[in-house]
Amino acid sequence: MDSEEGTVVLVSKEGDKFPVPKAVAYMSGLAKDTIDDENDDDEPEVPLPNVKADVLRKVIEYCEHYLKEKMTDIEKPLKSNKMSDVVQEWYATFVDSEEHEMLFELILAANFMDIKPLLELASAAVAAMMKGRTPEEIRKVFKIQEGDFTPEEENRVREENKWCEEA
């Protein structure tokens, strides 16, 4: 059997099972390593204890689309705060239509599952929301209370995220 034929079952934090083609599962470095380490060729299961079912559905939707239409590379620094200026329309709509909490969940899931293009897309969407805004505006957008960060932490965050600002 070809290494990318067959089905893999991704198992969410809640125990929900999502059968997907191996090619979709292989977009995840974690799933690929797990599958490659297993000996049975039937329908391997990949437990994802850090990924909620609703988030896993979105991850699968992304991976399925990516296999049909690869996402263009995201230029850094971001040239616009509109994702449609940064990536193809489908990808822009995918992240623009999500609540902040889901975007952060997608970032965590993509990082945990080792899906670099999804991690880049979701991170760029968050960066685009911050681009050109003052710290006060960012606090309001992301519902961050004043005093959540010390001045030192705020400066460190600014330094670490200079890449998302224009050169």
Concise structural overview:
By secondary structure, the protein is mainly α. The chain has helices at 22-25, 29-37, 53-68, 89-96, 100-113, 116-130, 135-141, 151-160, and strands spanning 7-11, 17-21, 45-47. This is SKP1-like protein.
Question: How would you characterize this protein structure?
Answer:
The protein is mainly alpha-helical and 167 residues long. It has a domain at 50-164: Potassium Channel Kv1.1, Chain A. The protein is 50% helix and 8% strand. It contains eight helices and three strands. A three-stranded mixed beta sheet has the order 2-1-3. The model has no long low-confidence stretch (mean pLDDT 86). This is SKP1-like protein.
* Strand residues, percent: 5-15%
Q: What's the total helix number?
A: 8
SS content category: mainly alpha
Strand order of the largest sheet: 2-1-3
Q: Assign an overall shape.
A: globular
Encode the helix/strand succession as letters. EEHHEHHHHHH
Which spans have pLDDT < 50 for at least 5 consecutive residues?
A: none
Mean pLDDT: 86
The level-1 CATH class of the domain at 50-164 = Alpha Beta
CATH topology of the domain at 50-164: Potassium Channel Kv1.1, Chain A
CATH superfamily name of the domain at 50-164? Answer: Potassium Channel Kv1.1, Chain A
Number of strands: 3
Major sheet: size, sense and barrel closure? 3 strands, mixed
From the alpha carbons, calculate the radius of gyration and give it in angstroms. Answer: 18 Å
CATH architecture classification of the domain at 50-164? 2-Layer Sandwich
Straight-line N-to-C gap: 50 Å
Summarize the amount of helix as a percent range. Answer: 40-55%
Domain SKP1 component POZ: 8-67
Keywords: Ubl conjugation pathway
Domain SKP1 component dimerisation: 116-164
Pfam family, one: Skp1_POZ
